[in-house]
Amino acid sequence: MHTSIAKYQALFEGLDVLSDDIAPGEQAEL
Amino acid sequence: MFPSGKVCAGLGRKRSTFRIGLAPAEHDWAAPNSVRPPLGGRFETMKTVDGASGDDLDLHPRADRAMCLPRLGYGQQGLVQLLVARGVRTTVAPLYYMGHNPELSLVPIRHRMGSVLDPCTQIRQKPWVERAESFRALPFGNDPEPYHPDRSRLTDQQLLALATSPIDAERGRGGTLLLTTFHVAGAIGTRGRDVELLLAETGIKHFRQQKMAEPPPMAAVDVPRVIYATVAVRMSDLMSPTARLRLVDAYLALGADGVWVKISGFHEKAAPAGIRAVGAFFAALREGPVPIVSCGAGQLHLALLADEISASIGVAESERFVVPATWKKKAKDGKRKGRTRMAYHPRLHCSFRVGSENARKAFRQAPCDCGAHAATKPPTGLLVAEHAAILRADQARDALGGDTEERREWVLGSAVKASLDSG
User: Fold this and answer.
1) Which of B107, B246, B294, B400 has its CA 20 to 30 A from that of B234?
2) H helix count then E strand count, chain B
3) How far off is chain A from B420, nearest CA to CA, in Å?
4) Chain B CA closest to residue A4
């Protein structure tokens, strides 16, 4: 996969995160 | 339009409607972008000196309309007409260039243009000897010691001067979208970030008290001014969801007309986890009522534009925002190297250093159709900037066309094509 595809996808995933949610792959903070 | 449905998964997710506790009361936070009164509502009612229409003065980003803001480098004023013809309404240039290249802030007679004169106050964090002479000539650029956000002492008078003098200088040079003072500092709760917020708050108050929003009657630059709070932060300080949201709350609560975001380490070479975290930061920021502008995100600016977030990127140079660091770029003879100029290749979604073998290979393999230079050779000399301006403006226009899903498809689809073109 071309690098830029993965990076664009990662950015779009982050932009889809709800504000009270966590980004994919992040650990919940207690 | 998009070659594979696989990478489209998740595109339809709706944006959240959360509210931030510190929001200014007069904004309707729950309203979606499409129904929010645009920030530029003021523009429609403002009287102009020669009967200009509201459109003539609607030059800055709005919460419901993203824009690409090219950042001009030294001697690039000649690109303005070319950019205007491609729909660019506002350009960016470093404020400290104005001393030796004031032409950068000139605007075409037949088109009103917005102008951002970036105070680049993060350069204060560099040792005195490494700051450009023109930066040291500014009232805030000549401190003998490098500014350290967590340690440097500031009296009330010094803080006031540091918060207000960049804004006064931006206005004096013809800036229409003014930026508050900023340095790269840590998370909320650190001393450095507390000072940053105080600088921004003081600068915004100064802008309001001085009534800078409205240009004086008969002014040469009669575009209504706005003030943006500038936040500069390392990507590593945005990895925690709590830290991100606290930063978002604090900056939106300042009540600026927009937020100008510079994230060190955030560009196409960053790790996906970091890019995702920054994406979540922007997602939270845009829940506010004001426009958000990303500055110096490198190639990722294209995806931000596609997602309705305004972006500023340098034309053939300064594509990424970097933390001020000791100048290490020296040639073998010990002298400083010159500016690094980049030749952007739109079909490959990559920039190549001008003069490098990689650039020669890339353009030979995938000819460029910008028309400014020979298609199978990378641009050289003055054509480097012209090539970049044409391609960046055209590609931004493509990224901004259609609805969000179409835009994302376009970005991912052209990236897929880039991977095929690059073999």
Assistant:
1) B400
2) 12, 11
3) 8
4) B415
- Three-state secondary structure call for residue B280: helix
**Are residues A18 and B303, on separate chains, in Cβ contact within 8 Å?**
no
Cβ-contact B200, B250 below 8 angstroms = no
Question: Does residue B140 register a pLDDT over 80?
Answer: yes
Angle at B339 between CA B334 and CA B341, to 5 degrees: 135
* Model pLDDT, residue B75: 87
Determine the Cα–Cα distance for residues B352 and B355; give it in Å rounded to an integer. Answer: 9
User: How many Å lie between the alpha carbon of A18 and the closest alpha carbon of chain B?
Assistant: 5
Q: Which amino acid is at B228?
A: Y
* Amino acid letter, residue B52: A
Whether B113 shows a pLDDT value over 50: the answer reads: yes
pTM of the model: 0.82
For chain B, give the mean pLDDT: 83
Q: How many other CB atoms are found less than 10 A from the CB of residue B103?
A: 14
d(C-alpha B374, C-alpha B346), whole Å = 15
- Are B276 and A20 a contacting pair at CB < 8 A? no
Contact: A14, B279; criterion CB under 8 Å: yes
CA-based diameter of chain A, in Å?
Answer: 36
The DSSP-derived string for B352-416 is EETT-HHHHHHHHHS---SSSS-TTS---TTHHHHHHHHHHHHHHHHHTSS-HHHHHHHHHHHHH
Most confident of B9-23, B148-162, B361-375, B408-422: B148-162
CATH class belonging to B24-327? alpha beta
List the end-to-end C-alpha distance of chain A, in Å, as a whole number: 36
3-state helix, strand, coil in chain B (%, to 5): 40, 15, 50
Q: What is the ipTM of this complex?
A: 0.83
Residues of chain B positioned with their CB less than 8 A from the CB of A1:
419
Angstrom CA distances, A9 to B75, B89, B213, B321, stand at 36, 29, 39, 21
Residue with tokens 């290749």: B345
CB B285 within 8 Å of CB B308 = no
Contact A23 B287 (CB under 8 A): no
Residues of A with CB under 8 A from a CB of B: 1-26, 29
Domain ranges of chain B: 24-327, 330-423
Q: What is the DSSP letter of B236?
A: G
The answer to whether B241 contacts A22, with C-beta atoms less than 8 Å apart, is yes
pLDDT of residue B344: 84
